[in-house]
């Protein structure tokens, strides 16, 4: 064990009520809104083929042109109630909204920089009404905040000189002030989602990130902060020099999902995912493959089956409305969740051998076991190999309680026989288990 001042201060999961609530969310939503939403990935009828919210870094777009976009920022059709209702219908239980992305533009009336929404034609705070609308819809709100801030003269990518450190110290104070402001203005906030913390300047500021983490939790008890905020004494991020997670959950799964339970290292985690191949802010032309609702539902099932949450990103347009494809996706996921949310909410990992037909989840409330089925085998027989001493007593379809035939195989394995194999969408089977003797007699038991 390497002695550390600023490594993990807690070994293992955080288990207070706020974190237990976080663990049970299952499904979340991310929203990227900012000056980049106005351009939608295009400038001067050229298309930027990077992530649309990074268009300021495109050499064909002068910084000055981008930074003056605030003069055009006017989400006339923005309605926080519409955003909250869409999220509610989709079945999300938490939402993370960008307050300030890397470009430094603040969607709230910050008193620490004039580069904020009050200086735009729209004038009004967007964060307050969103926090209120989501909170009233029963959706927990988390605020995305980029530490890296391209607008601040005191931002540094690295600390090479004394002058760098003097400037960066001013930047740290600015950052702490803005975060205090956000938590004071929006006390319903459940957590902060940090980004833009990969540069050397921040890696060399492990002591500050540690004290900032503690300060924020002191002024806002229960606050949830993932592993993207801190660096340890040696600049390690997410996991300290001793391999312990620094943060309340692992925040590294961006557009990727752990391959299996081992890869989660037994930590809490969530995966944030774009519907297109990449790109978080609104882009007129989405990159590459657009994930179908079923692909996203399979990702959701996989995340929950590995004790994580799944967060789908939406990038509203500059006028404050969502593109049709995003509205349709939210609708489709919501329709599936209306029928099958029992297998997602308050559910997590089950240590049974993964089968090809899909994913197991187990309810943290009552231990009920769910099979979320995506791939029906040709013979319509779904193999289940329970852990030792666990036996299948009954299997039924969640959507209509229809009991399914269970055939005993060797040991306590079973086949669950599906009658009609023309399933048109992912479905859920509920398993009732018992301890002790095989509850289901095989028909043709070969001795
Ligand atoms: C290399 C890279 C840097 C920053 C990002 C930001 N994190 C996501 C949550 C988005 O905000 C994206 O701009 C993505 C990739």
Uncertain runs: 441-447
Strand content: 15-25%
The secondary-structure element order is HEHEEHHEHEHEHHEEEHEHEEEEEEEE
Q: Kindly report the average pLDDT value.
A: 96
Cα end-to-end separation: 56 Å
How much is the radius of gyration in Å?
A: 24 Å
Structural class call reads alpha/beta
How many strands?
Answer: 18
**What about the largest sheet?**
8 strands, parallel
Total helical elements: 10
Assign an overall shape.
globular
**Helix fraction?**
10-25%
Bound molecules: ligand K80
Q: Give the strand line-up of the largest sheet.
A: 7-6-5-4-1-10-9-8
Describe this entry's structure for a reader.
With 447 residues, the protein is of the alpha/beta class. It contains 10 helices and 18 strands. It has an 8-stranded parallel beta sheet with strand order 7-6-5-4-1-10-9-8, sandwiched between helices. It has a 5-stranded antiparallel beta sheet with strand order 11-12-13-18-15. It has a 3-stranded antiparallel beta sheet with strand order 14-17-16, with no helix packed on it. β4 (94-100), α5 and β5 form a beta-alpha-beta unit. α4 runs parallel beside α5 and α4 crosses α10 (324-340). The radius of gyration is 24 Å and the shape is globular. It starts with 16 loop residues before the first helix and ends in a 12-residue tail after the last strand.
């Amino acid at each position: 064990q390497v002695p550390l001042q600023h490594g993990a201060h807690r070994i293992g999961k955080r288990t207070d009520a706020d974190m237990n609530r976080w663990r049970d969310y299952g499904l979340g939503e991310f929203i990227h809104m900012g000056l980049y939403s106005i351009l939608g990935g295009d400038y001067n009828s050229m298309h930027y083929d990077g992530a649309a919210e990074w268009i300021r870094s495109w050499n064909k777009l002068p910084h000055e042109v981008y930074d003056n976009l605030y003069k055009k920022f006017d989400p006339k059709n923005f309605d926080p109630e519409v955003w909250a209702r869409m999220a509610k219908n989709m079945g999300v239980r938490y939402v993370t909204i960008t307050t300030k992305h890397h470009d430094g533009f603040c969607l709230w009336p910050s008193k620490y920089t004039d580069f904020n929404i009050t200086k735009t034609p729209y004038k009004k705070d967007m964060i307050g009404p969103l926090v209120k609308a989501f909170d009233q819809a029963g959706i927990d709100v988390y605020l995305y905040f980029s530490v890296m801030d391209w607008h601040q003269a005191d931002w540094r990518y690295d600390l090479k000189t004394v002058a760098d450190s003097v400037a960066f110290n001013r930047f740290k104070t600015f950052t702490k002030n803005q975060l205090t402001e956000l938590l004071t203005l929006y006390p319903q906030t459940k957590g902060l989602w940090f980004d833009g913390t990969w540069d050397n300047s921040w890696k060399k500021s492990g002591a500050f990130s540690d004290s900032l983490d503690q300060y924020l939790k002191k002024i806002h008890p229960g606050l949830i902060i993932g592993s993207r905020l801190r660096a340890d004494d040696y600049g390690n991020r997410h996991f300290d020099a001793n391999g312990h997670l620094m943060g309340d959950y692992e925040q590294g799964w961006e557009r990727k999902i752990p391959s299996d339970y081992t890869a989660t290292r037994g930590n809490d985690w969530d995966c944030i995912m774009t519907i297109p191949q990449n790109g978080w802010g609104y882009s007129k032309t989405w990159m590459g493959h657009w994930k179908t609702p079923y692909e996203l539902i399979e990702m959701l099932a996989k995340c929950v089956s590995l004790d994580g949450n799944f967060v789908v990103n939406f990038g509203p347009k500059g006028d404050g409305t969502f593109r049709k494809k995003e509205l349709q996706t939210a609708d489709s996921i919501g329709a599936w969740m209306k029928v099958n949310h029992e297998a997602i909410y308050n559910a997590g990992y089950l240590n049974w051998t993964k089968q090809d037909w899909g994913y197991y989840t187990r309810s943290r409330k009552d231990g009920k076991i769910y099979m979320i089925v995506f791939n029906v085998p040709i013979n319509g027989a779904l193999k289940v190999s329970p852990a030792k001493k666990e036996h299948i007593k009954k299997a039924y379809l969640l959507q209509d309680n229809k009991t399914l035939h269970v055939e005993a195989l060797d040991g306590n394995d079973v086949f669950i026989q599906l009658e009609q194999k023309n399933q048109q969408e992912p479905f859920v089977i509920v398993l009732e288990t018992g301890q002790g003797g095989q509850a289901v007699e095989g028909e043709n038991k070969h001795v």
